[in-house]
């Protein structure tokens, strides 16, 4: 039983690809009293991530093939809710985000929010406070502000790897139709708005020193271009002009 909301089951879903150097420190950092179960999903890493993760008392699953960032997360979400979770907290194995930030989401848990976003921009500047690289900070801030204003989605950040999924998200949103790549993380926020789920955000901290497995700038560029495509599809679906499998009728 977790110590945040005893009447809700909260699972950690750790997603991993070639994050061996950070696994020990991540495990030690996680407050085990915050979660009812901890799952570790290794996306067919080519290093010894799987072997290292098996040393610890979390449930370790290795994919037979590489599913991609979004594909691995889809599998993690599905597994957690089929196992009885009320909430599933996405944690990256490279230890970039503080895994214990979900303590700030207590009110959202009690009010059955469908999606909770961990934002680095709530009441702070991560470039100055956390050492976020300026190009990442600038692109993220501009795109997040643009998307928030354009789509009337009240969030300060859209491009974050710390999210908490609620059972209502799992039951109502066709997230399995989303991308198997990093674009998944953007699409599901638009889906939460499209399906009128209750959503909110909490402040999180992040680290950019040492080992990290963030999306590189080349892939990040195409990720941002695809954001505009998804925004267009969202608008077309809302205006009932065109629907696809992500934004269906």
How would the blueprint of this fold be written?
Elements: E1 10-16, H1 20-29, E2 37-42, H2 49-53, E3 59-62, H3 68-82, E4 87-92, H4 106-110, E5 115-119, H5 126-129, H6 134-151, E6 163-166, H7 167-172, H8 184-194, E7 199-203, H9 217-238
Parallel strand pairs: 1-2, 1-4, 2-3, 5-7
Antiparallel strand pairs: 4-6, 5-6
What can you tell me about this protein's structure?
The chain starts with 9 loop residues before the first strand and ends in an 11-residue tail after the last helix. Helix 6 runs parallel beside helix 9 and helix 8 (184-194) packs parallel to helix 9. The protein has a seven-stranded mixed β-sheet with strand order 3-2-1-4-6-5-7. Helix 1 (20-29) links the parallel strand 1 and strand 2 (37-42). It is globular, with a radius of gyration of 17 Å. It has helices spanning 20-29, 49-53, 68-82, 106-110, 126-129, 134-151, 167-172, 184-194, 217-238, and strands spanning 10-16, 37-42, 59-62, 87-92, 115-119, 163-166, 199-203. It is an alpha/beta fold and 249 residues long.
Keywords summarizing the entry:
249 residues; alpha/beta; Spore Coat Polysaccharide Biosynthesis Protein SpsA, Chain A; 7 strands
Main sheet: strand order: 3-2-1-4-6-5-7
Strand portion: 5-15%
On the 0 to 100 scale, the average pLDDT is: 93
State the CATH topology. Answer: Spore Coat Polysaccharide Biosynthesis Protein SpsA, Chain A
> Any idea what the radius of gyration is?
17 Å
- What is the count of β-strands? 7
Query: How many structural domains does the protein architecture include?
Result: 1
Largest sheet: 7 strands, mixed
Q: Total number of helical segments? A: 9
Instruction: Return the CATH architecture.
Output: Alpha-Beta Complex
At the first level of CATH, the class is: Alpha Beta
Helices and strands: which structural class? alpha/beta
User: What overall form do the CA principal axes indicate?
Assistant: globular
* Spans of at least 5 consecutive residues with low confidence: none
Distance between the termini: 39 Å
């Amino acid at each position: 039983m977790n110590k945040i909301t005893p009447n809700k089951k909260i699972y950690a879903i750790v997603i991993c690809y070639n994050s061996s150097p950070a696994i020990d420190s991540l495990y030690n950092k996680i407050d085990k009293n915050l979660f009812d179960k901890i799952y570790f999903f290794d996306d067919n890493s080519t290093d010894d991530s799987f072997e290292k993760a098996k040393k610890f008392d979390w449930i370790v699953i290795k994919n037979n093939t590489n599913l991609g960032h979004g594909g691995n997360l889809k599998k993690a979400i599905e597994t957690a809710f089929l196992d009885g979770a009320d909430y599933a907290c996405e944690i990256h194995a490279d230890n970039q985000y503080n895994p214990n930030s979900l303590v700030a989401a207590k009110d959202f848990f009690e009010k059955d929010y469908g999606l909770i976003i961990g934002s680095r921009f709530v009441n702070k500047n991560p470039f100055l406070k956390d050492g976020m690289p300026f190009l990442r900070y600038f692109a993220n801030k501009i795109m997040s502000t643009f998307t928030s204003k354009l789509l009337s989605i009240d969030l300060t950040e859209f491009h974050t790897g710390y999210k908490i999924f609620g059972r209502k998200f799992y039951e109502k949103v066709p997230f399995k139709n989303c991308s198997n790549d990093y674009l998944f993380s953007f699409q599901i926020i638009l889906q939460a708005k499209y399906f009128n789920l209750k959503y909110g955000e909490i402040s999180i901290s992040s680290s950019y020193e040492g080992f990290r497995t963030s999306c590189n700038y080349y892939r990040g560029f195409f990720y941002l271009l695809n954001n505009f495509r998804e925004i267009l599809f969202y608008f077309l679906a809302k205006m009932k002009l065109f629907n696809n499998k992500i934004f269906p009728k």
